[in-house]
Amino acid sequence: MIDVRAARAEPERYREALARKGAGESFDGLMAADAEYGAGPTVVVSHAFAERRFGGSAGAIGSAIDVDGIRRTVIGVLPAGFRALTRGGPAIDLFVPAPPASALASRGDRDVRVVGRLEPGVTITAAQTALDRVSTVLALEHPETNGRVVAVVASLSDDVTGTARRALLALLAAVGLVVLIASVNVANLLLVWATAQARDVAIRVTLGANRSDILTEAIVRGLVFGVAGAVAGVLAGVWVRDALLALAPSTVVPDVGPIGLNARVLAAAISLAVATGVLASLLPAIQVTRRRLTLTVAEGASSVASARSIVRWRGTLLAAEVAAAVILALGAGLLVRSLVRAHQTDLGFETERVMAMRVHLPALRYPDAEARLRFFEALHTHLESTPGVQSAAYANQFPLLGGWGGAILVERATGPVEGEADLQAVSPDYFRVLDMPLLRGRFFTDADRGGTAGAVIVSEAFVTAFLPDDDPLGRVIRRTAGHPPLTIVGVVGDVRRDGKFAPVTPQVYFAAGQTTLYAADLSAVAIKASGDPTAVVPAIRHAVAAFDPGLVVTAIAPLDDVVSASVASLRFHAWLFTALGGLALVLAVLGVYGVVTYVVQQRTREMGVRMALGASRAQVLRTMVGGGLRWTVAGVVVGMAMAAAGTRFLASLLFDTAPFDAGTFVAVTAGVLVLAVAAAWVPARRALRQNPLAALRSS
Fold this sequence. Notes:
By secondary structure, the chain is α+β, with helices and mostly antiparallel strands. 51% of the residues lie in helices and 13% in strands. The chain has 3 domains: 2-103, no CATH class; 164-343 and 568-697, no CATH class; 361-551, no CATH class. The strands form 4 sheets. The protein has a 6-stranded mixed barrel. The protein has a 4-stranded mixed beta sheet with strand order 4-5-3-6. The longest helix has 37 residues, at 211-247.
């Protein structure tokens, strides 16, 4: 809904709408009549734009602003909380009526997004069925452009969040595993404390204390631990939230509004911390109070600690801890491997020292293809004479910054064939700026312009897809059956136009000088600098302003930065999971160290007896270390099995890496075992350094 605060200079239909609804109320802003030819030019602006430009909504309504050289009347201001449906990029401030479908350049162009609201009771499945019927009819009526096109319905939430939902769920699971490991460590520590207090507990029960009193004391102790942990966690969570939001790219955290610790999040975190503290304190107390009281009173603490039930408890907890650490470490290993492979993937073009930007030409001042071409040819000549610029090129768009796809018709020796390809209008220097290799034929020249035979250059993937058994040079392609013929004059290497994660697709490059033969909106410029590409940006802005002071240079970005941003999501996930996996491994190693240390302390006398009877220190060391590693190996096996099933959940986050990558599994599990051996070896080795007689005298 559009907030209307005033009605100055409004068209009559808006005056009527305001009169019907009452001043200061809302109506649906842009109407269908606004898109009709001959309608008064109108625009709706964002709340932020109205505040910056007009000092508020009241001053904006009815005011006039120039948009692409057209004087438009502001008819509405969007609410402050409104967010356009974009995935990253700058905020949208101006909204103008879209032209009718009949004004689109070609049925083969599919750059329009459609958003609709389903009627009450209509499901997405039902809507998809209806659109399937529409797609079938259009395919029959327009086989050259709609023969292979199917409309797909998706919920708006899924479309906005994209892959972020799965990534955030994976992060939630990873954090849950870290919480599990920390809880197990706390439970193990409390179990040690409880077994040390077992004799005192037994005496208290013998003297008349109720078991319920002992358990109540454990619950209170757990509450204290849980509340303290919750307070510390919430304070740390505020800092961690801000740090993560600052580091996370928009593809990881969608721009759906402010993210904070609301009441539900705080309630869940506090409940989890308190429940963890209570369970970690209560379960060891239950275990101790179940022992036979006479036996407990008669025995020392060391014999209690050596009871089989206690050993099984601690071993089970240790195995669970190691299993969780293995799962996290394997997830981190898969993501790191994916990141390495992404960096090793060749885009097919050079991005180093290349700066790309967009120069939007208003239709009123540049009404046709010839006028636009003359502007970019003159700008190209000026840029190449600018100090610091090695070469320059112009196109409708450059790789990584958008695309133009559509239907094509290829005339083969066996007959014409229809298909889909990525389309690009480029200047002769385009391939030189991006350092794309010529495999056959020639590049474009200045002679490829209006009035000459149409020429195109295709990629190797195009030849494989459409002309596998034909010589591509000299073959004719068309946009559709009614478009002029274009002859293939060259073949270039394949590119990953949409980034490293995108597959190689067939590419068709049109000559920018022949835009009269097809519809193309030249608007992008790229320069290859001899040094730092950002250093020539002021010169580029000055050059554009010299040709037309009313033009604005936007979307300026070094292609290296664009490539880096394209892998930002994977890099963030790899970094985050590595940090969580590293934390999990540290906690697991501390768990192994603590368990083995305590067991060694309780078996000091046994070690002295064995060595007195002739056992070597190496044999005793293997026994002590092996006892701790038995549960570690069990945890590793369980963790590998669970990871083999669970890492499939990460499949959408991986690149060129199987969820069950044998190399990663072997490396990670071997590393965990090595760390566990070291953690168990240190306390056992330290205990063996003492004199056997001293060990025999220990109790």
